[in-house]
UniProtKB/TrEMBL annotation:
<keyword id="KW-0472">Membrane</keyword>
<feature type="transmembrane region" description="Helical">
    <location>
        <begin position="249"/>
        <end position="270"/>
    </location>
</feature>
<keyword id="KW-1133">Transmembrane helix</keyword>
<feature type="transmembrane region" description="Helical">
    <location>
        <begin position="307"/>
        <end position="325"/>
    </location>
</feature>
<feature type="transmembrane region" description="Helical">
    <location>
        <begin position="277"/>
        <end position="295"/>
    </location>
</feature>
<keyword id="KW-0812">Transmembrane</keyword>
<feature type="transmembrane region" description="Helical">
    <location>
        <begin position="202"/>
        <end position="220"/>
    </location>
</feature>
<feature type="transmembrane region" description="Helical">
    <location>
        <begin position="9"/>
        <end position="29"/>
    </location>
</feature>
<feature type="transmembrane region" description="Helical">
    <location>
        <begin position="88"/>
        <end position="107"/>
    </location>
</feature>
<feature type="transmembrane region" description="Helical">
    <location>
        <begin position="119"/>
        <end position="137"/>
    </location>
</feature>
<protein>
    <recommendedName>
        <fullName>Glycosyltransferase RgtA/B/C/D-like domain-containing protein</fullName>
    </recommendedName>
</protein>
Length: 496
């Protein structure tokens, strides 16, 4: 019996150790915990606010405002009790999410009848597919969400139903809001099974509700809402809901084609998925997922290296595992062989983007915040669009012009930017400045080029003077550099 147990856990244990080793290598190669996205520092800032009980940067704003994933934030708080500093804790949480993702893939493959060696290769290949590893390293909820999808498929393909599936279904909407659709669809699959007793189905509903209730109460008590505000804030700012269908379709197709190329030809294995009820449910999830982004926020699928689309990576690998363990094995092996020509390109593209973001974009932002702390010690009010690192490492008071961390700013975009499809975004930005009277503006050059933030203020009579530009490696594109502007309101000029 001991030998059998060791044999059964050898392959998944090896997968877990290899994943740990990969993350450890990245940690030491970077000289510690480093994150390519400013959003990672929103998580760290929110965790700090929860520990301290108040936000000294975004005054009067609850910690869960701007927190998309309550589950990720709760886990970060737990890991911070064991790992120090908090940046290392966030990296450790990303590592654990990566391990959970790989193990979910492994046991999913084992459920389908794949030999342990093939299951291990598929699950570790999940780190390489479309450069997934670098999404697991982003310090956000992406890895946790991908792990949730992998384990949902694993639990749906179990031969015997247990209560872990409804537990996960209850939590999933608080890992990523989009997973609420997968949660509901998974519960429908469970309820459609004739062989499952009514007693078990009632228990499943109660368990799912019980696992969701703590998060519902947490959000309600902290923010007065049952759902996070991040999706609404971005939707109102980018204002694509009423854009021309042709423009929305172009953005959607661009995002999907990039994802298809990065996962080509493995995504063709989706036609092998089984059992049919699970395959249809996953297809429905994908259609609703893409349809919701097309309707409200198509460009969101291109943000942060297309991170939202990586929720679909476990589904692609599910198709591969189904193909390898079926009569379509030879066809699947051919597709896997061809993919060897394409997977390196996707991995290298994500690797280069990861390096540029850490050394260039985040390096520039870090340099500006260091200068701001040293030269502006009196806590001026700074208007920002990237609300994370400057709140985490800076000492200034902040107003987030997008509205993630400043809900009042979101209302300006809801009233002006959103219905005008972005045409009057500059008016909303100027109105936010008029309402909050910031003394400085911190802006990424790419954002200023796309949205005309500086010109919006000048057009409303504000005086802007650049006082500092973040330093970064010479190869950093100019678009990735942060600039700090001193602002003077029209009323101040009149008074002067």
């Amino acid at each position: 019996m001991t030998i059998d147990l060791r044999s059964r856990w050898l392959a998944p244990g090896t997968c877990a150790l290899v994943t740990f080793a990969v993350f450890a290598i990245v940690y030491y190669a970077n000289g510690g915990a480093a994150f390519p996205s400013d959003d990672a520092f929103i998580n760290l800032h929110n965790a700090r606010v929860l520990r301290l009980g108040q936000d000294e940067t975004y005054l009067g704003v609850p910690a869960l405002v701007g927190a998309t994933s309550g589950a990720h934030l709760a886990l970060l708080l737990a890991v911070e009790q064991l790992v120090y500093p908090d940046t290392a804790a966030l990296f450790a949480l990303g590592t654990l999410s990566g391990v959970a993702y790989v193990l979910g893939l492994f046991f999913m493959c084992r459920n389908l009848g794949c030999p342990d060696l093939e299951a291990a290769l598929i699950s570790l290949g999940g780190l390489v597919l479309a450069g997934t590893l670098f999404q697991l390293l982003n310090g956000m909820d992406t890895g946790l969400a991908m792990a949730a999808v992998a384990w949902t498929i694993k639990l749906l393909t179990d031969r015997r139903r247990g209560l872990w599936l409804p537990v996960l279904c209850g939590v999933m909407p608080f890992i990523r809001p989009e997973l609420g659709v997968l949660s509901a669809a998974s519960m429908l699959v469970l309820f459609s099974e004739i062989e499952t007793s009514v007693r078990f189905k009632i228990a499943a509903v109660l368990v799912a509700a019980s696992s969701a209730m703590p998060f519902l109460l947490w959000y309600w008590s902290d923010t007065g809402s049952l759902v996070p505000n991040t999706v609404s804030a971005k939707m109102y700012y980018f204002a694509e809901r009423y854009a021309d269908w042709s423009d929305k379709l172009f953005l959607m197709l661009l995002a999907v084609l990039q994802a298809a190329l990065a996962s080509f030809p493995l995504f063709l294995c989706l036609r092998f998925t089984r059992p049919p009820v699970v395959g249809r449910m996953l297809a429905l999830f994908v259609v609703i997922f893409l349809g919701a982004y097309f309707w409200r926020f198509p460009s969101g699928l291109l943000h942060n290296g297309g991170r939202y689309l990586y929720l679909l990576a476990p589904i692609v690998l599910f198709g591969v595992a189904c193909g390898l363990s079926s009569v379509f094995r030879k066809q699947t092996l051919c597709l896997v062989a061809i993919s060897i020509l394409f997977l390196p390109q996707g991995f290298i593209t994500r690797l280069n983007d990861y390096r540029t973001q850490i050394a260039g974009t985040q390096g520039s932002l870090s340099d500006v915040v260091t200068w701001l702390n040293a030269n502006l010690p009196d806590r001026p009010l700074v208007m920002v669009h990237d609300a994370g690192y400057v709140a985490y490492a800076g000492h200034a008071a902040l107003v987030d012009l997008v509205g993630l961390k400043t809900p009042a700013a979101m209302e300006f975009h809801k009233r002006t930017t959103y219905p005008s499809v972005g045409l009057y975004r500059s008016t909303a930005i100027a109105e936010i400045a008029d309402a909050f009277h910031p003394q400085y503006l911190l802006v990424l050059q790419d954002w200023d080029r796309r949205f005309g933030l500086v010109e919006a203020l000048r057009g409303r009579g504000w005086t802007t003077r650049e006082v500092y530009a973040g330093r970064a490696p010479p190869e950093t594109p100019a678009a990735n550099i942060y600039h700090l502007y001193e602002l003077r309101s029209p009323t101040a000029d009149v008074a002067g």
